[in-house]
Amino acid sequence: MSHRDALPEFVNEQKGRTGFSRVWHAAGYSMAGLRAGWQEAAFRLEACLAFLLLPLAFFVGRGWVEAALLAGSVLLVLIVELLNTAVEAAIDRIGPERHELSKRAKDMGSAAVFLSLVLAGGIWLAALVRLFSR
């Protein structure tokens, strides 16, 4: 008997799904992730800003490329914030004690959020300067 024979056919039942069933369940997991993200104050603030900025991107943007950059930069902040929250949750799952590697992981996640905010801010600032300098 090989090592593979000793394992159950599917450790994660999602891996055994195919077609529409897989997509349906994956969408449910994604919605659960968004609900979990909503529990974080930083994500809520960024999501509320996104509700304002996403429609505004299509008025500020001079063409579809500029609108896509404006909207994409806002969505990127939300994506990075969710990934940072996931890293923090995984680290916290390991244990509450302080460890240098845990600190590094959390600090790097925070830095990623910061850089995504700088990028979005720069894109929006450039578009607004162009818009109001006419």
- Judged by helices, strands and strand pairing, the structural class is mainly alpha
Secondary-structure element order, N to C:
HHHHH
Largest sheet: none
Shape: flat
Round the mean pLDDT to the nearest integer and report it: 90
Count of alpha and pi helical runs: 5
Uncertain runs: none
Number of strands: 0
If you compute it from the alpha carbons, what radius of gyration comes out, rounded to the nearest whole angstrom?
20 Å
What is the helix content? over 70%
The percent range for strand residues is under 5%
**Terminus-to-terminus distance:** 74 Å
Secondary-structure blueprint of this entry?
Layout: H1 3-6, H2 19-38, H3 41-60, H4 64-94, H5 100-132
Helix pairs in contact: 3-4, 4-5
Word description of this protein:
The protein has about 130 residues and is an all-alpha fold. The protein has helices at about 5, 20-40, 40-60, 65-95, 100-130. The longest helix has about 35 residues, at about 100-130. The protein is flat, with a radius of gyration of 20 Å.
Keywords:
134 residues; mainly alpha; 81% helix
Question: What does this entry show, briefly?
Answer:
With 134 residues, the protein is mostly helical.
